[in-house]
Amino acid sequence: MDASHLLIAAAHTPHLQAQAPGTVTLVGAGPGDPELLTLKAVKALQAASLVLYDHLVSPAVLAFLPPDAERVYVGKESSRHTLPQGDIIELMVRLARSGRAVLRLKGGDGYIFGRGGEEAQALAAQGIPFTVVPGLTAAQGAAASVGIPLTHRDHACSLVLSTGHLRENRQLDMDWDLLARPNQTVVLYMGVNNLPEICRQLVAHGLPADTPAALVEKATLPDERCITGTLAELPSLALRHQVRPPALIMIGSVVSVRAQLMPAATTAATEGDPALHAAA
Ligand code: SAH
User: Fold this and answer.
1) What's the burial of 42, exposed, middle or buried (CB within 10 Å: 0-12/13-18/19+)?
2) Which class would CATH give 3-133?
3) Mutation probe of ligand 1 site: the residue of 77, 198, 248 with most atoms within 8 A of C-beta
4) Which of 3.40.50.410, 3.30.950.10, 3.20.20.80, 1.20.1270.360 would CATH assign to domain 138-272?
5) Of these residues, 54, 106, 109, 218, which one is catalytic?
6) For 229-240, how does the pLDDT look when each residue is reduced to its tens digit (9 = 90+)?
7) 81 and 3 Cβ atoms separated by less than 8 Å
8) What does the pLDDT look like over 121-144, one tens digit per residue?
9) CA-to-CA distance for 266 and 280, rounded, in angstroms?
10) What is this structure's pTM?
């Protein structure tokens, strides 16, 4: 269904707004593989009559919805929003106010770079009852799927999840000193388009250029790709392999563990190209 149509419909049903408020369930749909949904998420999907879902929710996850559930695609790619965030919130609030039980479905975990916090704040401010169902975040799905433990006593004692994209495409003014610290793993979301600048800044702030690094595209999905190299090589590898969002950038010595955990994936792909360790 067309989201703008529903927004207008909800706006013109003032008699419904007098009803008792409905509810919103904010559900994290995980990184893509439907088997990585939580049991709570599956139950919420199976009971849904109206769902507002984002770009990163995979069709295999939507397959759990009852056939007659109303599905509203509200989009959300970093630069192309089908509905601006403010309109998504307005639509969700209006629908809940009209008495509907709304399932708000987001990729990964709604509270990790998913703007779930902003949506929950709006619901709380409006007095609309809501519950939150966590999902596996992309970093967790990717870690398991490509054989890169996020922490490891020999490699990293802390993990930083960061965005590599800033609001309104302002200049990247991240805390580079923090990101360049030793003995940690850094996972960057939404960073592929800023990869050269990210790698340049990390090296400039002291992270060795030969730090192992990986790009994981479409983690946990059938067409997942993992490309590994060094921090310095990553931008050219991304270019050569045409890495596209959704993809994660993983940086840190833990990336080297992949060769041990998934030797078949790494050796098969390195034949003929020692700089590349790509696995389908
Ligand atoms: N809430 C989501 C993140 C949304 S931000 C979560 O918890 O995972 C969108 C970014 O997430 C993408 O640009 C990409 O960096 C990352 N991402 C989401 N799903 C992914 C996937 N299956 N594989 C790789 N990266 C993914």
Assistant:
1) middle
2) alpha beta
3) 248
4) 3.30.950.10
5) 54
6) 999 999 999 999
7) no
8) 999 999 999 999 999 999 999 999
9) 10
10) 0.89
